[in-house]
Each structure stands twice: as C-alpha cells, then as structure tokens.
Amino acid sequence: QVKLVESGGGLVQPGGSLRLSCVGSGRIFSGYDMAWFRRAPGQDRVLVATIEGGGHTFYEDSVRGRFTISRDNSKSTVDLQMNSLRPDDTALYLCACRTSYRGSRYSPSEYGDWGQGTLVTVSS
Question: How many CB atoms lie within 10 A of CB 51?
C-alpha cells in the first residue's frame, strides 16, 4: 500500500492558478499510473487527469488545455498545475494510485490508494 498526501489547495479567483502536489510513500512509485480526481459537493469522484509511469498523460475534456499533470519519480510526487480556473472547478481534489487494470481509467474502483484530498475553491 502507498500513502498519499496532497497539498496546495486554497481559495483563488476565477482566472487564477493553483499548483497541487501529491507525495507518495510506501511503494515503488514509478511503476504505477497516478491520477487526480475531484469531488464537488454532493457528487461522486470524477477523473481529472492521469499520468502513466512513463509519462503519458490523459485529461478529462473540461480541463484539457488548462491543467497539466506531471510527476517526478525520484521524489515520488505527482503535481497538477491548474490555470484559468473557473467556479465549476471548485472541489476536493484527490490523488490516487492505480492498482487495477481490469476496467476503465475513469472508474475510482481501479485505484486502490487515495489521499485525503485538498480543497480548491474558485470564487470572487
């Protein structure tokens, strides 16, 4: 099992930027696909972006072109750079490690390890 700890959330005005970071420990980090999900109030977790161990990335349509996911395997970190933030980006952002490849990358059940999340609020 890997322990994941997120940081970097906060309050930002529309159009602003934030950088989220996730630090992992307890497992060889580089061999696993990592992801950022978000959970808006009253909603289920939704995939935001993924990054494979080799660096290939995937983005949900609403964030493509605004968000950038990256990883540093030597530091066991996964970052999410968020630009041009909008009020509908407001959510709890969670870092996750993919431990199953039997289903879709969109499914939270594919990810066996989760952080506690960091809250992002976009408001004027």
Answer: 21
